[in-house]
Amino acid sequence: MTNKVPCKECGVQILPETAGKTGGICMACKNGIRANLEQAKAYYQRERELENSCPFRSYWRDLVSRVFDSQGGFESLNDNEKLYYSVNCLNSEIHNGGFAQYFDNSAGEHAAYAEIGLATLGANDALRLFREARYIAFGDAEVPVDRLVRMKAVEREGVFTALDKLDDEYYKDLDNLGNKLEQFALDKGLVCNANIRLK
Prior knowledge:
- The protein contains 10 helices and 2 strands, in the order ββαααααααααα.
- It has helices spanning 16-22, 27-30, 37-51, 55-69, 79-104, 111-121, 124-138, 147-154, 159-170, 177-187, and strands spanning 5-6, 13-14.
- Strands 1-2 form a two-stranded antiparallel sheet.
- The protein starts with a strand and ends in a 12-residue tail after the last helix.
- The mean pLDDT is 89.
């Protein structure tokens, strides 16, 4: 088990590998998004409140368990589940540490499904920002499945700063992505509850 180290700027615990790449600071400080942390904290506070009462959260826990605890992993999900899972991962990673974190982490290997999911949901603003971020990091290529290739691309000079500007736009959530995901889950029968009322 790897012992984490504190970020030199904010004190949050980070992996030694991250500290080595960033000069000892967390991705949020490296990307200059620490100022957006309050918004991210509010987002996760809402997430915690929903954890025990929301059927969507129950479904999410089931999906995560199936991806990480079953033999079939991500491939055991049907197409609608893959889209739902991939867009949720994208949204969570960006709210936690921006596009750079999304591309750096394992969730980025499902970027093709996330992109299709955003288009399917009609999340046009998020889709535009995703495509801009993909272009900044990878040019005309698709997002590589190989994590090391993604990490090297994001580490290039100027990429963090350019992605940070897109993060700020993404946080505005002009698509109301959470509601679109919930409606998708209901429409596709992923979550069934006649008592659910969307905001």
